[in-house]
Automatic annotation (TrEMBL):
All residue ranges annotated as the CN hydrolase domain in the record: 2-252
Species assigned in the record: Penicillium citrinum
Keyword Transcription: no
Annotated Gene Ontology cellular component terms: cytoplasm
Protein name, as recorded: CN hydrolase domain-containing protein
Length: 274
């Protein structure tokens, strides 16, 4: 078994401060003996407007954010999975999830497929699709120290098709780094994560943003690691005090046991294969 760490932070519009939080989490994960650290969606920054977001995405600090995490991964010999912004075009950004290996190289780059558009009465109004370009592909699962990992981001969680597609390609761990709002988090966060773990018989690792990012936005927290039986084996809270990690052993023998003892034989003669 190999130890995985799930991190929790509160990103703001200060990329320098966010990098410091992530570096703290790298140190904590390394000290705990973790081989992989999972960081949240948009760990580089959370802006208060589209204009500010574009400005930050084009800044020198944003480029430094990724390169400094690459240095930290190499120095600590730990794999890092982290959500960042990228530039898609003159008018669009990318919501990306990169995998940095323990040599400091970026080996995977997934672009969020399902964008978060929500207008909750008495709650947040967020329209990610106004300035973010959706991804056009699901990355195949890839080998890591904790098994075959499949990448997804936040709102992808509400669409079981992506996790089922990853499972069909023998994913053993599925990630959902997120910045869930408080109302949707309270209603659906744990239920959806546990459902994705149960239906794919995979570990689900969900690093979350927590606390107030600015006067307009607050995230739910509750970073989790869930085993393939749907049990929460590591969890953090909602209130943000400082960057935190939770850890759990990833037991691939448990994945094999559950899949062997309860094979999910899909009736693709009756419905399409996902």
């Amino acid at each position: 078994m190999v130890l995985a760490a799930v991190g929790q932070l509160c990103a703001t519009a200060s990329i320098t401060s966010n990098l410091a939080q992530c570096q703290t989490l790298v140190r904590k994960a390394t000290a705990a003996g973790a081989k992989v650290l999972f960081l949240p969606e948009a760990a580089d920054y959370i802006a208060s407007s589209a204009e500010e977001s574009f400005s930050l995405a084009h800044s020198r600090e944003q480029g430094d954010f990724v390169s400094e995490l690459q240095k930290a991964a190499k120095l600590s010999q730990i794999h890092i999975n982290v959500g960042v912004h990228g530039i898609a075009s003159e008018h669009r950004l990318k919501n990306s999830l990169v995998w940095i290996d323990d040599k400091g190289a970026i080996t995977q780059d997934y672009q969020k497929v399902h964008l978060f558009d929500v207008d909750i009465k008495g709650g947040p109004v967020l329209k990610e699709s106004t300035n973010v370009q959706p991804g056009q592909s699901i990355l195949p699962p890839f080998e890591t120290p904790i098994g075959r990992v499949g990448l997804a981001i936040c709102f992808d969680l509400r669409f079981p098709e992506i996790s089922l597609a990853l499972r069909r390609q023998n994913a053993e761990v599925i990630t959902y780094p997120s910045a869930f709002t408080v109302p949707t988090g309270k209603a659906h966060w744990e239920s959806l994560l546990r459902a994705r773990a149960i239906e794919t018989q995979s570990y689900v690792i969900a690093a979350a943003q927590a606390g107030p990012h600015n006067e307009k936005r607050r995230s739910y927290g509750h970073s989790m690691i869930i085993n393939p039986w749907g049990e929460v084996v590591a969890q953090l809270g909602e209130e943000y005090q400082e960057p935190e990690i939770a850890t759990a052993e990833i037991d691939l023998d448990l994945v094999s046991k559950i899949r062997r003892e309860m094979p999910l034989l899909r009736r693709t003669d009756l419905y399409p294969e996902v």
